[in-house]
Amino acid sequence: MKPDNHLETSECRAISQMLSRVGDKWTVMVVTFLGNETLRFSELRRRIGGISQKMLTTTLRNLERDGFVNRTVEPTSPPSVSYELTALGHELLEPVSRLADWTRDNSHRIEEARSHYDRLTSK
Question: pTM of the predicted model, to two decimals?
Answer without folding.
Answer: 0.77
